[in-house]
């Protein structure tokens, strides 16, 4: 496997493979264990398809008790475990390891409880993001976070990556819409964090788990908040002669105190690719396109549309169109949500990046990306969650051309360095995984990273859960100041301990 260096396979584990597979079949009987190489091939990568690796064995449990037994077994025998949801991760978060059990949660696919009085849905982690909305939409409710992969991505994976989507500007990321989880620790303990109540006392362990990328535990149940659909929702298509003008319009809309339900931006290559793919009615004579959705009471929406049109006009907008039906609004969004596959039609391969910047820095970063495009000789199509500064540049390349993948990766790394330089961060919603792992020192000091690893040590002292992800270098927990006990005596024995 090319790409980032992963932890060296444990020889003792590899020698015991047949024994481990047999023991997994005892824990998960039937067809829940896959060990033939040709059958495991479907699991060899996630959405970051540039990197591939067959796992030691694939296990698909159906119950929390089975998950607990698997993790306890692996912990007692020092066997690594890589949790996996639907495999849509774009950062390599679910990339298997040669000596690890790949724990696939796709059989946890049931909605367990719908409690509209408390605006809560309890779902197993393998339920798709869109499946939650489908379960409650007849009653006029929906689940707000909506990644572009929502038809396929699982709610458990959303928790692992803290996924967002086009409506996260107003309604928040996964962390703002999750109420509780049931999870299994590496030692097999089953714990619950949160619940249907809005908040809980004590440390925010639920917040810690959301976005932890499978490094702290395995989620087996998720409680999310669902919202009542707004009375009115209308979308606007606004075209601009330059990306800088569109970026300034975004800043001015937010600066005016207007918080749209969603505000997305696409540049010319992305506009043309999406229009050719879904025929959404996008204008093709503009350099940048904003999709602005306003929702709420009809009178408020009508008023805000007028204000946004004026702001857009002041920024040189050349075209503006407002949806007049839910079908037309859905068509506006269809092109944006299909942008990634649409770009796949104009390039043999593309590399989807994910960085977040302060909104005011958008013109500077766009100019920087154009310079980088010329430097590396690769085209880039830009799709943004413009309202919250989350960028998704799509770097176009051909993996069959020697050196192009490496150039695309270097191009992407420089984009992320630019994001950090202007005051942004390495990721907005895709996670770190293996893709951004070696860039973490660009954003964090060694002390920062060591403190984060201490949290990892508290949950997983032997680094068995998803090792090789997120952190560029893992230290032994003992090296990071874990308590040293000498001849049975702890330091400061007079202090109360818990």
Automatic annotation (TrEMBL):
Q: Which residues form the FAD-binding PCMH-type domain?
A: 51-229
A Pfam family reported for this protein in Swiss-Prot or TrEMBL: FAD_binding_4
Give TM regions: none
**Does the entry feature the keyword 4Fe-4S, yes or no?**
no
Q: Which SUPFAM superfamilies match?
A: FAD-binding/transporter-associated domain-like, FAD-linked oxidases, C-terminal domain
Q: Which GO terms describe its molecular function?
A: oxidoreductase activity
The organism sits in which domain of life? Bacteria
Q: Which cofactor does it need?
A: FAD
> What InterPro entries does the database record attribute to this sequence?
FAD-bd_oxidored_4_C (IPR004113), FAD-bd_PCMH (IPR016166), FAD-bd_PCMH-like_sf (IPR036318), FAD-bd_PCMH_sub2 (IPR016169), FAD-linked_Oxase-like_C (IPR016164), FAD-linked_OxidoTrans_Type4 (IPR051914), Oxid_FAD_bind_N (IPR006094), Vanillyl_alc_oxidase_C-sub2 (IPR016171)
Q: What class of enzyme is it?
A: oxidoreductase
Q: What's the EC number here?
A: 1.-.-.-
Annotated keywords: FAD, Flavoprotein, Oxidoreductase
**Protein's name according to its UniProt entry:** FAD-linked oxidoreductase
Species this chain originates from:
Nitratireductor thuwali
């Amino acid at each position: 496997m090319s790409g980032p260096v992963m932890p060296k396979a444990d020889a003792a584990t590899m020698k015991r493979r047949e024994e481990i597979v047999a023991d997994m079949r005892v824990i998960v009987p039937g067809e829940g264990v896959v060990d033939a190489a040709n059958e495991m091939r479907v699991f060899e990568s996630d959405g970051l398809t540039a990197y591939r690796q067959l796992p030691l064995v694939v296990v698909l449990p159906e119950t929390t008790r089975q998950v607990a037994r698997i993790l306890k077994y692996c912990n007692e025998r020092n066997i690594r475990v890589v949790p996996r949801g639907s495999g849509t991760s774009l950062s390599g978060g679910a990339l298997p390891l040669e000596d690890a059990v790949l724990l696939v949660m796709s059989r946890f696919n049931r909605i367990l409880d719908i409690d509209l009085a408390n605006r809560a849905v309890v779902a197993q982690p393998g339920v798709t993001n869109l499946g939650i909305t489908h379960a409650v939409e007849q009653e006029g409710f929906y689940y707000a976070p909506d990644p572009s992969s929502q038809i396929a991505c699982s709610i458990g994976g959303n928790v692992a990556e803290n996924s967002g989507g086009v409506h996260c500007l107003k309604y928040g990321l996964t962390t703002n819409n999750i109420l509780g989880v049931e999870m299994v620790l590496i030692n097999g303990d089953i714990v619950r964090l949160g619940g249907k109540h809005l908040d809980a006392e004590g440390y925010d362990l639920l917040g810690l788990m959301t976005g932890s990328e499978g490094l702290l535990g395995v989620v087996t149940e998720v409680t999310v908040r669902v919202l009542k659909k707004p009375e009115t929702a209308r979308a606007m298509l606004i075209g601009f002669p330059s990306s800088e003008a569109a970026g300034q319009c975004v800043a001015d809309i937010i600066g005016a105190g207007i918080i749209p339900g969603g505000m997305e931006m696409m540049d010319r290559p992305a506009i043309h690719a999406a229009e050719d793919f879904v025929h959404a009615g996008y204008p093709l004579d503009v350099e940048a396109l904003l999709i602005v959705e306003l929702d709420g009471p009809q009178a408020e929406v009508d008023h805000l549309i007028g204000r946004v049109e004026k702001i857009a006009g002041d920024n040189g907008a050349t075209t503006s169109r407002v949806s007049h039906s839910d079908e037309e609004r859905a068509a506006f969004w269809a092109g944006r949500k299909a942008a990634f596959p649409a770009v796949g039609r104009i390039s043999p391969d593309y590399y989807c990046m994910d960085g977040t910047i302060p909104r005011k820095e958008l013109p500077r970063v766009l100019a920087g990306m154009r310079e980088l495009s010329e430097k590396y000789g690769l085209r880039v199509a830009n799709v943004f969650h413009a309202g919250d500064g989350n960028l998704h540049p799509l770097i176009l390349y051909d993996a069959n051309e020697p050196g192009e993948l490496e150039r695309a990766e270097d191009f992407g790394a420089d984009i992320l360095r630019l994001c950090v330089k202007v005051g942004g961060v390495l990721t907005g919603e895709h996670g770190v995984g293996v893709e951004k792992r070696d860039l973490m020192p660009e954003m964090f000091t060694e002390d920062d990273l060591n403190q984060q690893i201490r949290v990892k040590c508290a949950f997983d002292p032997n680094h068995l859960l998803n090792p090789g992800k997120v952190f560029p270098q893992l230290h032994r927990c003992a090296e990071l100041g874990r308590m040293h006990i000498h001849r049975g005596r702890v330091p400061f024995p007079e202090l109360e301990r818990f």
